[in-house]
């Protein structure tokens, strides 16, 4: 039955809620429409909403800061601090505050439905004023008389490098030409993709048809590919590229710093080589090379004339004093020689050769002083600034922050004040009369009494005297100074607040960055010796007594490669390049070359890495890492060239085995492509090396004994923990209350209930503790005292079931109402068991299967392939040096495998894993794909007189420079 008075409060609340929903719902519509108009979001697919009577206006705020145009400056990249920043003076403005970047211009339109992607991390649509590099006055100029002159004499006779090739029959020529055309088509597709979607940018993303700019946004692929276009006969493409070179502005870049190594080998080398190959017909190529070289040569403006390998070109930073790097990569600082030498030969400017000749001199001096004499470590200190040596002071000597010795004054005992003179009494006699110094007020709190009752007044003496010579006092001492042993009252005339000897209240001038001494103080004698900021030095180690890595691979490679090539480029007129090369290769053959243990017993060689000193065996020079890396695959070609140049026939055998090692590395994978790096088991010697399965397994699982012992220990701990946990669990179960035994149900007679008791008050589910055990389930009529206040309920009318419940017969013998035991069991503590133990055989087989290890390989350090050229480079050199067609056959297999797995719609892309049957594309095509890899493949099948090794010498980016005649 519906009772209005009882539920009227609920009706009131319901009416209010309905009105509120209607009001706020209509208001929300107005706000949504206003917000949509404010952002321009219009839903064309939905019908217009009906107008609201009181529509809210859209919110419009005037924020001056939001409408005011402001310049945008991208924060500079974080640079790692130098190992010893205290050796270089702090510039006025920190380097990080002066290394902003400049955004690139708006990118061209990508292909359909493909957004343009740029790695700059900047809004390409933002308009920012372009900053240009300008030539600044040199802070450390090299006098013209001190320039190292470019050799200008007639080149010395040099042995022939290329073999004498046999005449070619018609059938072989037809097959060779077909292969050439195939290689050219692949190159043409990559070039067309770059021209269409990445023109004047550094690199094409060949899968997505977009671009990226890792090399200063100067068109790296364009400049790097100039000589490739010429060599392949793509003259129309070459002409277009040469014209586009004029649009490159080398005086500005989006990058805060210019990478010296990459810029030199790709840009400077590419321009000079294209100028050489085209018979010097395109003057703009040389002009742009000079424009770039003037920027790069500024990085050599340091005290020791060594370059900053990352040159911060903006004026506010470039105008500061700078030192060369304290942790320079060997390959970067040692691989600038060929490009600057050839530019010097073309322009007649000796400063370009002088810059790199000084680097060579330092390398030559350092070569015999390394931890592996004959080779250089991967990192070296090129700053030219060593820590000054300071003699360790004796136990009685102390040094000031400036390095001067503190010598304590020979002063008397505490001074007594006497009345006779009002001054100082050095030998106190009698009682003190006046505790004063003439002209001063007495401070009783400062009085100190001697045992005889005299007052001690401490002198306001200067700090200990600074001794700057063997036996003299600092000549810069002021008139207030006290000479040891002569303390009298006339030496205390001036009572300055701070009495410090040899103090200059004016700030001292900053020392020159490469000076041996600091500028003397204005109050000091000019001849006063001071501690030098640093000691001039050549190249030194950066690790002190730590371990260093020696390798022909990454971070070292092209420094060794340039030694014989620079010898060729200078016409054999600088003998040191031959000497340095031969010394280094003798050490390489002794310590780095090794034969890998392989199932089929292939007689090949790899060049590994040596860490010096050895941590394993004190009798060994260092620890060899038996690795073969793609970057070291150039060594076959280098050894072959060195063998012909310097009459080292045994090196030619080594060259063949090194090149064979890289060919085997290609053939061992499912894709037919070599990974970036992998490890093998080295043989004891290079003569005999039988396959040893046990040794191979031990190399894959070298920690078997340790793994087994660790697992046994873990199992013992696990068992102990399980025993302890089980005991605890059993104790907890025993401590739990056992359930009571159910008793027989007592018979109870039914009794009539009062007519005043409602039926719903007899609900058996009422709680037992609310039941009065002494009462029967009968409730008499409520008395006046117990009758509830009817007005306390809505409407004042009694509700159904209101008032205290009717008490019922106690039912403690009912199972549901009886006291129940806890049903929650104790929780067993967490005990973790060790994983399943794999024995030696299972572990090795699992690793081989999961890591897809080729038979003989113990570990793959890096599985990707980024279109590298080093392996085909050595194959080309070996074909040109030996004339054996075997190298062409091997090279063609390599080309087919690479093109098959890297080909994309717009070019060729790096892949993620060469051990997969179907690797994934990484959407990267570095400029050396056209500049080196495809060029070497093309030259392998081209006529042998095209870029002959007896007429040309190629830099590390495969750019040919004409040898002097």
UniProtKB/TrEMBL annotation:
Ca(2+) binds at residue 956. GO terms for cellular component: endoplasmic reticulum; membrane. GO terms for molecular function: calcium ion binding; mannosyl-oligosaccharide 1,2-alpha-mannosidase activity. Signal peptide: none annotated. Residues 89-101, 514-531 have a biased composition (Low complexity). Its EC number is 3.2.1.-. Its cofactor is Ca(2+). Gene3D superfamilies: 1.50.10.10. The active site is at 262 (proton donor), 557, 676 (proton donor), 870. Pathway: Protein modification; protein glycosylation. Residues 42-58 have a biased composition (Basic and acidic residues). Belongs to the glycosyl hydrolase 47 family. This is alpha-1,2-Mannosidase. It comes from Decorospora gaudefroyi.
